[in-house]
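Annual report, structural modelling task.

Input specification for the adenosine-5'-triphosphate complex:
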Amino acid sequence: MRASKYHINTLKEAPAETEVASHRLMTRAGMIRKVAGGIYTYMPLGLRVLRKIENVVREEMNRAGAIELLMPVVQPAELWMESGRWEKYGDELLRIKDRHQRDFVLQPTSEEVVTDIARNEIHSWRQLPLNFYHIQTKFRDERRPRFGLMRGREFTMKDAYSFDRDEAGAQASYDIMFQAYMRIFGRLGLKFRAVAADTGSIGGSRSHEFQVIADTGEDLLVYNPDTQYAANIELAAAPCLIEHRAEPKEELVLTATPQAPKCELVAQQLGRPLSDTVKSIVLATDPAEDDADGQVRIWLLLLRGDHELNEIKAGKLPGFERGFRFATEAEILDSFGCVPGYLGPIDTAKPVSIIADLTVAHMSDFICGANREGYHYTGANWGRDLPEPQSADLRNVVAGDPDPNGGHLAIQRGIEVGHVFFLGDKYSKALQATFLDTDGKPALLQMGCYGIGISRISAAAIEQCHDDKGIVWPRAIAPFEVVICPVGANKNEKVGNISEQIYLGLQEQGVEAILDDRDIRPGVMFAEWELIGVPLRITVGDRGLKEGVVEIQARSDAAAVKVPVEQAQAAAL
Ligand code: ATP
Ligand code: MG
Ligand code: MG
Ligand code: MG
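The model returned the following structure:
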């Protein structure tokens, strides 16, 4: 590629709305342009990054035996009614009508369509196992699209769906995908961690998120550096919340708070006066109603005594027979429209039964507090903007299997870039997707689903790798691997010729190189490529050529190295 024939348009300043580095830098580098909230054009440079991520994902999916197909973005409502998600999914599902007033959705994922394919295509156990995947545009009408490609409304996802004869087979397919994900994120050159995640109404322990480590991540991860243990905060904290409820020493008095209106609302919903004392609280969702990607109702359970706690533990609390799980920060945001710590009005039109403005961070602190001092969340602390939990605080909090000896636990922030999930017969049952088993009888297909946020990865990579000059791409996903910058080509013909030679040589070797033949000031040229984040720059200058050298500057290194002209090409491989 020659820069003069390409489209490069960088900006000195980023729009004020760009809050995080990736959004700011992708906009400034001319990789994305906003079309509407959460909807972007991938500009040429940005598209190159996306394609590279896609290719790594595709190669590894193929290697793992998954088979690519392409399912539609627009899907008929009927299939969604069959699965029950037409009712359950909530506002994130964009519903549209065609000219005949028939209902359709823009797919947020494709369980329905793929299960429909499976029930038509898979007849016998001999065809199993099968894993279909596609890389396709998704649409989720996120309540708060933000951070550019990090949380878009229209975005690109790889989603795969495995089909097996039985649970053991489904477990094997899950393990294969897990390993494929480890390879994918390793190849992409990212620091990441696989963490155990909640399985919601599916139950079992087969759900893992792949999290890119970054301070700006929306998720909190708990891990033990000395063992294999790693889980997201919702899962890590859940058991101990129940444990530490057992002997409450203080009471929650809702009246004594500056957020009286909200408490009144809680009281109204509870149908009892505010002066009622409450011994423990749990912010929870009901797995029976909960869907992996569907609408979530968040409950503030105000428990008045140990008997209620025991009921919860035993799964006997009415409406919570299947246990409960923590509401996540994102779910709270989605349900209440309030960001963590925000105490503004609550949208009562939302289908929320009992509401609160606690967040995961609040809950963690609450849990830590309970652990440290054995007390419970009191009225005085209600809604306070609490600091993030410290690792020491959670040390003994995560009960059971992670570390019975009370070892060290650490917390870090992450960006969810992938998710593997065991589905069992959830969709095959709803859509009656069966096959004839070895005994000749029909059986339900056992399924798993596996997502990777292709476009989110590009943003996550930048959150992890950037400096004050711009992006520092891992080579595997950089828009170009090498840029050749001639300096003073108009004065010395040799500069242009040698630049051209190196450029053509690299191209021949399959390196994605770009020759900056735009005849602009070197300072401007360098700053632009540093902003764009190309991993390697070769500067061919008049002065260097007199010594027979060119300069090679790695984007991630402080200093450039001088290399004899004839070795330049090899040095850039
Ligand atoms: P989140 O918790 O961030 O909302 P999710 O759990 O709803 O994500 P999944 O349903 O697990 O997402 O989808 C699989 C992957 O798709 C996620 O791991 C993430 O990488 C990506 N993804 C989900 N929502 C978005 C979005 N709004 N913009 C970009 N990528 C997304
Ligand atoms: Mg989501
Ligand atoms: Mg999630
Ligand atoms: Mg997820």
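Residues 209, 416, 419 surround magnesium ion (ligand 4) (CB under 6 Å).
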